[in-house]
Amino acid sequence: MPVASGASVSLGDRAFAVALKPVEAAGFVMEPERAPKPGTFGAVLRFDSVDKAGAYQITLSNEAWIDVVQGGARVKSTAFSGQKACPGVRKSVRFDLIAGPLIVEISNAESDTIALAIAPAQ
Question: Model-level pTM?
Answer without folding.
Answer: 0.89
